[in-house]
Structures are given as structure tokens and as C-alpha cells.
TrEMBL record:
Residues 467-476, 491-500 have a biased composition (Acidic residues). Pfam families: HMG_box (PF00505), PH1_SSRP1-like (PF21103), POB3_N (PF17292), Rttp106-like_middle (PF08512), SSrecog (PF03531), SSRP1_C (PF21092). InterPro entries: HMG_box_dom, HMG_box_dom_sf, PH-like_dom_sf, RTT106/SPT16-like_middle_dom, RTT106/SSRP1_HistChap/FACT, SSRP1-like_PH1, SSRP1/POB3, SSRP1/POB3_N. GO terms for biological process: DNA repair; DNA replication; regulation of chromatin organization. Residues 504-527 have a biased composition (Basic residues). One of its GO terms (molecular function) is histone binding. Residues 616-644 have a biased composition (Basic and acidic residues). Residues 458-541, 574-593, 600-659 are annotated as: Disordered. This is FACT complex subunit SSRP1. Residues 535-603 form the HMG box domain. Residues 535-603 bind DNA. Belongs to the SSRP1 family. Its main location: nucleus.
Amino acid sequence: MGDTLEFNDIHTEVKGSWNDGRLRFSKQSVVYKSHKTGKVDSIPAPELSAAQWRRVCVGHGIKLATSTGHVYRYDGFKDTDFEKISAFFKSNYKVELAEKDMCVKGWNWGTAKFTGSLLSFDVNDSPVFEIPLASVSQCATGKNEVTVEFHQNDDAEVSLMEVRFYVPPNTGDDGSDPVEAFAQNVLSKADVIQATGDAVCIFKELQCLTPRGRYDIRIYPTFLHLHGKTFDYKIPYTTVLRLFLLPHKDQRQMFFVISLDPPIKQGQTRYHFLILLFSKDEELSLALNMSEDEVEKRYEGKLSKNMSGPLFEIVSRVMKALVNRKITVPGNFQGHSGSQCITCAYKASSGLLYPLERGFIYVHKPPVHLRFEEISCVNFARGTTTTRSFDFEIETKQNNQYTFSNIEREEYGKLFDFVNAKKLNIKNRGFKEGMKGAEGYSDSDEDQHDAYLERMKEEGKIREEGDGSDESEGDSGTDTPETKYISLSDSEADDGDSEEESKKKKPEKKPKKVVKEKKERKPRKEKKVKDPGAPKRPMSAYMLWLNGNRERIKSENPGISVTEISKKAGEMWKQLSKDRKEEWDRKAAEAKKQYEKAMKEYRESGGGAAPKKKGGKVEAKKKSGGEKEKKEGGNESFKSKEFISSEESSSESDHDRGSKRKVLLMMMMRRDISTSQVSQSITDGYSDQDFLLPCLQAHFYICFSIQTENLEIDG
């Protein structure tokens, strides 16, 4: 058999709540460490006087009694653990592990026995239930009745408030009242704070950050009394878990932090930490309210009757002696500025993060203490608002996440080295080590994957495939409304008249009203007229695939709108395999070759000659004798090819009126013109009011379907 036995997932009851932890039996002691608080209970082996093995609600349990009167109970063992624990106790502790059965008869009449700090209610010498007297907050007596009240634990889902015992009305041998005797036995071991006698010392008007205010602190032998203008708190020393003494970043102040479990309460607010703020320059001379012999006997040289020095040193020294806990101070960590803390923000408040030897602590609002053993991993994240800072994220094994934000990038190198030295699991180690440089942090965004940027690059490549033909030809393709409509719907493979391209052209139109220099309008004047007889530009691989699969997408998604078809098709195209895409690329290449061949024949036959300009408006007309150009007044202002002139004849054909209606709607859909301009066109009589008003009321959020010469509203 080994020198130690270890058991995980062992539970102990703390004021009505189950806390899990790890229990270790060694030759020298029995040690239990709580996973929740990190508190360690150690029982020296020579003090063990009795041990019991019994069946409990969570498997099997062990009850240990010491010669000092303390009782410890641990549950969560398996039935097969009895033999090896019993053998270990015999060989190392010389204690017999006795089996004891609990009474499950359900009787409520029995005998109350006081054993150390435990009240046991027995029926026929078998315990029915046991009450740790340390959980008792008050004990009241009545006629033949004793009421025992308990401390409440916020972690317990259901809390036991009180238990009442009926005591028969008989007197003892010495004539004492059995009710009073019962109550005195309870109060002698109960955790009832009674301010009897004088305080050991008093500190006046100390500044407290949590709970906020100035308090007089009275130090008693067993508890701490905070007396403020509004609230009073009594804190037993048994609830103090840890003490911290932390220097402020300005090197002129000190934090003294007291960790509490259970916390102190103020209404519905719970304070797990008591934080005092001191100035380093403040001095104090203190005389304890005890004789020198009493001080020496009780505190064994840790305190002296008369003490003087900085206030924070006196307070921390007194608390260390009375609580009997070590004071934790920052370790070897030093930040970029030379201080032992890092300025950051947690939730909505700014504070200081202290890397300690065994954890992190953040002060002050709200205070957070994280031990290394409860940390699952840490993460260095880029700041959300600026590249001059970063976020430090800590994830615990209980799946709680703490984010400390707005840390200066100069602190990155120091913090990363500290975390690495403590062997904490860094979630994005590879990424951050690559980013770590001479400055400790990089301003560049190139080392971080940007999904949106990648998608834009992909769409740009698809557009380049569609725009790969000769750009000197100007606007290629047909000028029919149907072509424009397809461009608006399938924005992933736009052929030149997309919404994005129209937005880019807008800034070029703005200066025409103010600046009339020839060089500003030169690109417009050099633009060629689209010849209806010219070969049509070939479609890209994506457009060929879309035309071949449009009906299938509609059949698989009944009721899908035109814009949703485009979105769905884009997603399907991206998921298409490489082999399938190569098939459509070959078709697009063949179509391009045919287009180049047709374009060559078209140019050899005299097509593509530049027509003359007409006062800034280009117009090509075919006449009987060949292609001639007609000049009109050159003083007219420049007008867009899609502008509806008010000077044209009102006796135009129905075909022309229908074309204008379609062009006007497409311009409105692309937002090249405003609703007020459309309304003016209606007022001037150049459009059908019954046709356009429903479109205005839809606020451009309708889908259009063009079929031959009629425009039908789908959405």
C-alpha cells in the first residue's frame, strides 16, 4: 500500500450547501481542498480519535472526530473504497474504521447528544440526523421548547431555516431547567456573534471601497466589527479565506483586501471582498487593550502591546495575527511602466489587474479573484475599438468567462511571458506568438483572417472574369432593360451596370454643374455609342451556370424572390466542386473565343466607327445612304443617356413610352434619381401615373420582372 490515498469528487456540507473537492490521506495528516474556494482543511494524524463509515445520500461517507472536539464529515465514496481506507487507517493512524448505520425509521422521538461541535439526534443509539453547531445563528427558548435557527447560504437551492425541539418538563438532579440547559449547550458551540468585553483595538475612520464608505473597525478576539454611519457588519474570522496587500499603480496608496466566504450582506447585495484603501504616508501609534503577558501568550510574538508605523502595515499585521492567515503580495511580475499591476477595464469600470504567484486578482469594482488551478485557458484578443489595446480573456473550468479589456499593447509582451511561465493553457498561442514582435504587439490587420474581405475578393474575381474583354469598346452588351435587370439581380457576376458601379460613377456627375472645363467631361465625350448590331459580350462561367440552373433553384425553393435567387445561387456557386467549375470555365472560354471571332469580323466590316458628338449627347442614326451623323446645337448642357427630355415630341409611339417607363423604373430602383424627380416626371405627363404610383409607395423594396414589352410587379 502506498504512503497516500487520494479521492476526487468528495463532498462536504457547508451551511446547507454541498462543496466538492479533493481528499488526501497521508501518514502525517488528512487534507481536504475545496474546488470552489480553494480553502484547505488539514487534520494532523495524531489528533484523529475516531472514524466511522456509513451509508449516506451520496454514496458512502466518513465521519472523523479529533481530540480537540472537532468533527469532519466527507461524502462521495464508493462501496469498494471501504477496505483500502480501513487498512490505511489501521496501519498509519492506529484508528479502527467502524461501520455505523443511520436510523431510517422516521421516528421523531429520541435522544439529543452533544459531541463536541455536533448535535446528534439518535433513536435506539442510531443517529437520525446531525446538526453542526457552527451553522447555528441563534437559539431561542420557550415553554418546553427550544428553537434553533441557522445561517443562510446563497449557494444552497433550498435552505433550512430552523428546527424546534420539544423538551419534556422534568428537572435534572441538580434542579436545573432542561430547556435552559439544552439552549446553553447549543450556544456554547454555535456561531453566534456576541460583542462581549472590550475590543482588542479600534481603527477610526478607515476608507473602505467595498462596501463603500468610512468605517470604524473594532477588532475582537473572534470577529471583526465594521461600524459605519448607515450599516454595521460583524465578520467572524472563520469566514476569512485570504488576505491581500497590493500596491496601487501610483505608488502612493495601498489596497488591503479581505476575501470572505460566506460574504457579508447588505439587502440583496453580497460583498465577497472587503477592500480598504490606505495612503502610504499615513502613520499610526497603537496600543492593544491587553497586558503584555496576554499579548505574548495569545499571539506568540506576532503582536506587541505598543506598535507604531504606517497605518496599512499596522492593520495588516493585526489582521494576520488574529485571522491566522498568510498575506498574499504581488510576485515578480512587472509591467511596462515598472508597476506590479496592469490597468484595464472589467465590465463597465476601470481598475487594476494583479498577476500573483498563484492567480489573478482584479480591484476594485467588482473585485475578482481567479486561482490558476480553476483556470481552463486564457486568450489574447485584439481590441474591439482600437489597435492600441488588446483584451485578456480568462475561461474557468466552470465555463465562466472574464474579459479584461483596454489593456495597453505595451503590456502584451510582459503578460504573455508571465502566462507562459505559469504554464497556463493559451487558447491562441500560435497566432499570438507570430504576432509578438519587437514592440510586443502589431498594428497590422493582415495577420487576422477577415471573412468579409475574402468574400469581397472572390466577388471581385468573378467580376473581373466578366469584364475580361476589351475595355476600349466602352459599355458592351445590349442596352435593353432586361440586361440591366439581370445585372441588378445577380450582383455577384455583374457585367458593368451593377449598383456598385453606378455608385462609383456618381461622383463624376457632381462637378458638371459647377466646373465646365473640357478636361472634366472628356471621359464622357470619348465614350462610344452602343451599336445594336455589335456582337454581344460573352457571359462569365458563373452567369452560364446560373442561366442553366435558375429553373432548378426556383423549383427547389417555391415562392423564392428574384433577389433571394441571386443570393442562393451565389452560395451554391461557392460550394460547387472544382471539377464542376472547370466545366463551366471551359464553356465560358469557348463563348469568349466565339465573341472575339465575331468581333473581329464586325470590325473588318466597318463596325465600331466612332460617331460624332451632338453638344455633349452622343447619338447614332442610320440613314438610307449609309451611316451619317446629325449635328444639333452645341450649346446644350450635357445630358445622361437615360435622361427623359421634356423637349421630345409628345406624340411618341407606345413603344417609346413603354421603354421610358422601364428606364425610369430601373433608375429609381438603382437610386440614380430620387422620388421627387419621378413625381415631377409624372406631373409633366411623361409617365403613366397609375403605373408608377404603386412603385413609389413600395419605397424601392419591390421586385420587378420584365417580360417582353410589359413590366409586371411580382412582390
